[in-house]
């Protein structure tokens, strides 16, 4: 067992139960003791932070690769359709925000980095901010309502990234 195994078990339990699990539940899933889990993470807050950090790192990887391809803006919008795993982590982060006034600084810094990659690609910081805000809104909509279709995302990519014919399409 390693730290990633613990995080995988936590994420799987969030997905299956719809809420953050106890350390005991994580240990039970792994067939280990609570102390074995605590060896890697001293408390539930550390577990939650590590799971969020892992999600941020995955988006960082995707956005960095996209920036190298000249596709950061479109990639950010496409990432607004969360996977089941992304959804679980996002809900966990949102639940932890109940006790805070703002996003954790590492997440806030990551969002700033991603917007910076989009701005560098487009050469327009205001347009980059609009794309980031639209992507964020789509992500939240996907968490709490009906997710936009893949076609809708592609229509938005075409329109916002500037590769459209201005016809648009319906939801």
From TrEMBL:
One Pfam family this sequence matches: TetR_C_28
All copies of domain TetR transcriptional regulator CgmR-like C-terminal, residue ranges: 71-161
Gene3D superfamilies to which the protein is assigned, alphabetical: Tetracycline Repressor, domain 2 (1.10.357.10)
Name this polypeptide is given: TetR transcriptional regulator CgmR-like C-terminal domain-containing protein
Organism listed in the record: Nocardioides zhouii
């Amino acid at each position: 067992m390693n730290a990633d195994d613990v995080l995988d078990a936590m994420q799987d339990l969030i997905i299956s139960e719809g809420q953050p699990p106890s350390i005991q539940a994580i240990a039970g899933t792994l067939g280990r003791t609570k102390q074995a889990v605590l060896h890697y993470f001293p408390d539930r807050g550390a577990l939650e932070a590590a799971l969020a950090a892992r999600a941020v790192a995955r988006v960082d990887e995707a956005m960095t690769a996209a920036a190298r391809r000249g596709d950061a803006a479109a990639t950010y919008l496409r990432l607004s359709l969360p996977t089941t795993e992304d959804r679980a982590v996002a809900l966990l982060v949102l639940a932890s925000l109940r006790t805070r006034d703002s996003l954790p600084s590492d997440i806030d810094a990551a969002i700033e980095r991603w917007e910076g990659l989009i701005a560098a690609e487009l050469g327009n910081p205001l347009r980059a901010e609009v794309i980031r805000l639209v992507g964020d809104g789509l992500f939240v909509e996907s968490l709490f309502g009906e997710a936009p279709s893949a076609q809708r995302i592609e229509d938005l990519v075409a329109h916002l990234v500037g590769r459209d014919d201005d016809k648009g399409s319906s939801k």
